[in-house]
Amino acid sequence: MKTIKEDWNAMAQAYEEFNNSPDSYSYNIEWPAIKKMLPDLTGKKILDIGCGTGIFTFLLEEYNPSKITGLDLSESMLAIAKQKAEQRNSKATFIVGDASYTDQYVNEKFDLIFSSTTSHYIENLDKLFESMKKCMEDNGHIILSIIHPIYSSMYPIEHGDTFPKDEEWHIRYLDKSVRAYIQPWIEYNDRYEKRLSKSYHHFFSDYVNAINKAGLTICQIEEPMPPESWKNESKESYEGYMETPTFMIMKLKRCKLP
Ligand SMILES: C[S@@+](CC[C@H](N)C(=O)[O-])C[C@H]1O[C@@H](n2cnc3c(N)ncnc32)[C@H](O)[C@@H]1O
Predict the structure, then answer these.
(1) Over the stretch 141-172, which tens digit does the pLDDT of each residue have?
(2) For residue 136, which of 33, 40, 116, 234 sits 20 to 30 Å off, Cα-Cα?
């Protein structure tokens, strides 16, 4: 199995085509919920961790921050983000780096640290939240959109280099084994050879405990619904999402000092 970085380098264009489309879950389910949770961002500094091709970086830039930086492990994901930044005259800048050690790549503090659907690629959540906190202003916030633990518990358990069968996609919540599966942007794209991607399944308690250990607290959690219009227009997606939701979004801040 290839490393996570190699995997994302190989999938970059397919990811962009799949997720940057008007009917994507990112635009229709995730972003409407995130928007309602945002603090005032005018003149503030934003860091987007695991920014990928910049889908949320550019949406957040519309709120007039003084600075916006994206960090990602994959050079190919960032190459697409940089190309889009140039086309749209964006002031966003991008850094190659590992989210578990974010503070080693950026030596400044941010008012909002944002991250979408990246934490399940990171084995050690303690390191992720510790390093996020080091890069956060005292009054800052973190907005973390995660793959819902119900959904990540459905990812098939890794078994060497063989592809999982459809029936291996079922909930197995209390199993911490590494998961391995074909990503939807590869599965539904004829131009790509099928490949296995690896990720982790963290329990909800793993998130809460790592957040508390880092000296952070949860101020809000959202489990966004699919759009009402999907009931008629995309019935299969609507029903699937109602059964096993893909996103959980948390807003965090520092614990108050005693
Ligand atoms: C599902 S994509 C999400 C991209 C973007 N946030 C979005 O919502 O479109 C996950 C991203 O996490 C990045 N990633 C995985 N592990 C990482 C790590 N340890 N540090 C930084 N980025 C990582 C991948 O390269 C990929 O771009």
Answers:
(1) 999 999 999 999 999 999 999 999 999 999 99
(2) 33
